[in-house]
């Protein structure tokens, strides 16, 4: 991507908006090269849940897949489903 200044930038994962710097720190620490789609999506949503009120009303996710020219914006239902899965997993881990 070329910024208005002419500088070239590229990301494997990024965040914009309030607390994006904190989310970026988590992404930089926990991102794994060549992870599958679901694992990457869970990582992103989990990062956001740490700094954003839970729920699809406060989270918007756009996904761009390598070698395609399409961007997918997740629906509220898709985001809520991922949030539910993450919360269930955390509850199970707490019980152990």
Protein architecture, described:
- The protein has a two-stranded antiparallel sheet.
- A hairpin with a 6-residue loop joins strand 1 and strand 2.
- It has one domain.
- With 96 residues, the chain is mainly α.
- The protein starts with 19 loop residues before the first helix and ends with a helix.
- It has three helices and two strands.
- The model has no long low-confidence stretch (mean pLDDT 83).
Supply database-style keywords:
single chain, mainly alpha, 96 residues
* Number of H- or I-type helical stretches: 3
**Share in β-strands:** 5-15%
Structural category? mainly alpha
Shape: globular
| Helix and strand element order | HHEEH
What percentage of residues falls in helices of 4 or more residues?
A: 40-55%
The largest sheet is: 2 strands, antiparallel
Distance between the termini: 44 Å
Instruction: Kindly report the spatial arrangement of strands forming the biggest sheet.
Output: 1-2
